């Protein structure tokens, strides 16, 4: 699965090359080409979400520079719809102005939790009576050095031990009703 990388700053070929080099799929056979499982998203209306951004030839200008976290989260939910089978729906990344300086990417993880009316966490099973149980969307923001993005994202996917070293913020929002 590929991850969406929202650019809230202009991204130069050198900046993308540094990010992509640090985040290739590791342990590939030497005779096979590297895999860069990321799709750069510099606008609210991206034209290609099917192909990985292996490299860029010129600076990619962003129109997301003034986007709020709410707008980016909403754009992710919209773009990572069930129709887009190649995109990971558990997290996305952001390259921002700070990334240019500290060589760290923001990894935004989306999850869920359920709580009873008394605030106690609840783990529902199929066919459970959900009366008095509220679902929350949990957003966890990590700021991760480029060299550790692969480790953190594979942990989010459950393919590696959990890494919480880079957690910056956890926000819980009442989950939208689904039909």
Automatic annotation (TrEMBL):
Protein name: Uncharacterized protein
Domain of life: Eukaryota
């Amino acid at each position: 699965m590929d991850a969406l990388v929202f650019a809230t700053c202009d991204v130069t070929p050198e900046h993308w090359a540094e990010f992509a080099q640090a985040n290739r799929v590791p342990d590939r056979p030497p005779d096979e080409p590297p895999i860069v499982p990321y799709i750069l998203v510099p606008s609210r209306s991206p034209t290609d979400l099917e192909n990985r951004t292996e490299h860029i030839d010129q600076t990619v200008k962003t129109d997301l520079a003034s986007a709020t976290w709410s707008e980016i989260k909403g754009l992710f939910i919209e773009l990572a719809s069930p129709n887009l089978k190649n995109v990971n729906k558990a997290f996305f990344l952001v390259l921002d102005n700070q990334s240019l300086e500290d060589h760290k990417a923001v990894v935004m993880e989306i999850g869920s939790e359920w709580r009873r009316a008394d605030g106690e966490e609840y783990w529902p099973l199929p066919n459970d009576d959900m009366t008095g149980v509220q679902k929350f969307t949990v957003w966890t923001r990590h700021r991760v050095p480029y060299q550790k993005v692969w480790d953190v994202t594979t942990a989010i996917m459950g393919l590696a031990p959990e890494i919480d070293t880079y957690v910056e913020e956890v926000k819980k929002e009442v989950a939208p009703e689904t039909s």
